[in-house]
């Protein structure tokens, strides 16, 4: 198992991120079945089986899945994934694999009524504190839909900057200053 794959609760100023479990399947299945919730998350509602496979922790350690809580209530879903791990969680050191397990990505989606309250940037900062401070990552990427202006602004508020993408899709990255990594 790659280092730093424990299921840690992450704490922001406005949010708390708790690892998802099988007990969260009904909530997440309802969210991911809603066209409003998935509008910028692939755009297509997901089946209960798809949600179970991807979002309740079954992909650990490669993907860490969280419920985003605000004032104790679930308001969204977040995940981070290791760019250098194969789908089965083993390290991928083949060509194109990354060294030292120091890179990966974040995905985050909030319920429509939770947007515009600073919760996205706050949850992102909590994730970044964990990834850079506790896990020693050097770089984190996100790939929001270009037309999702609210999300792009939220990522930028959290410190992400646009970088060139091989596919032409929008790609934002956050690089940790050398002194912040452990």
Order of helices and strands: EEHHEEEHEHEE
Q: How would you sum up the major sheet?
A: 8 strands, mixed
Helix coverage percent = 10-25%
The total of beta strands comes to: 8
Q: Which structural class fits the helix and strand makeup?
A: alpha+beta
Tell me the number of helical segments per DSSP (H or I, 4 or more residues long): 4
**Order of strands, widest sheet:** 1-2-3-4-5-6-8-7
Overall pLDDT confidence: 87
**Unreliable stretches:** 1-5, 88-99
Question: What's the gyration radius in Å?
Answer: 16 Å
Q: Give the CA-based shape.
A: globular
Task: State the end-to-end distance.
Answer: 19 Å
Can you give keywords for this protein?
single chain; alpha+beta; eight-stranded mixed beta sheet; 4 helices; globular; disordered N terminus
Descriptive overview:
It is a single chain. A hairpin with a 7-residue loop joins strand 7 and strand 8 (about 170-175). Mean pLDDT is about 85; it is low at about 1-5 and about 90-100. It contains four helices and eight strands. It has an eight-stranded mixed sheet with strand order 1-2-3-4-5-6-8-7, covered by helices on one side. The radius of gyration is 16 Å and the shape is globular. It is an alpha+beta fold and about 180 residues long.
Which helices and strands occur, and which strands form pairs?
Layout (H helix, E strand, L loop, with lengths): L9 E2 L3 E5 L5 H8 L15 H8 L7 E8 L2 E10 L20 E8 L8 H16 L4 E4 L6 H9 L3 E3 L7 E5 L7
Parallel strand pairs: 5-6
Antiparallel strand pairs: 1-2, 2-3, 3-4, 4-5, 6-8, 7-8
Helix pairs in contact: 1-2
């Amino acid at each position: 198992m790659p280092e730093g794959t424990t299921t840690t609760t992450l704490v922001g100023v406005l949010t708390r991120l708790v690892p998802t479990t099988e007990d969260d399947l009904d909530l997440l299945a309802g969210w991911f079945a809603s066209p409003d919730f998935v509008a910028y998350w692939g755009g297509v509602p997901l089946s209960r089986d798809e949600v179970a496979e991807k979002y309740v922790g079954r992909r650990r350690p490669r993907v860490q899945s969280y419920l985003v809580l605000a004032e104790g209530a679930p308001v969204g879903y977040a995940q981070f994934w290791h760019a250098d791990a194969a789908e089965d969680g083993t390290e991928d050191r083949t060509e194109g694999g990354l060294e030292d397990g120091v890179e990966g990505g974040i995905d985050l989606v909030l319920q429509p009524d939770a947007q515009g309250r600073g919760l996205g940037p706050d949850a992102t900062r909590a994730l970044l504190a964990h990834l850079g401070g506790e896990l020693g990552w050097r770089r984190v990427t996100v790939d929001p839909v270009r037309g999702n202006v609210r999300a792009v602004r939220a990522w930028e508020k959290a410190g992400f900057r646009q970088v060139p993408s091989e596919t032409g899709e929008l790609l934002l990255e956050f690089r940790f200053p050398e002194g912040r990594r452990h």
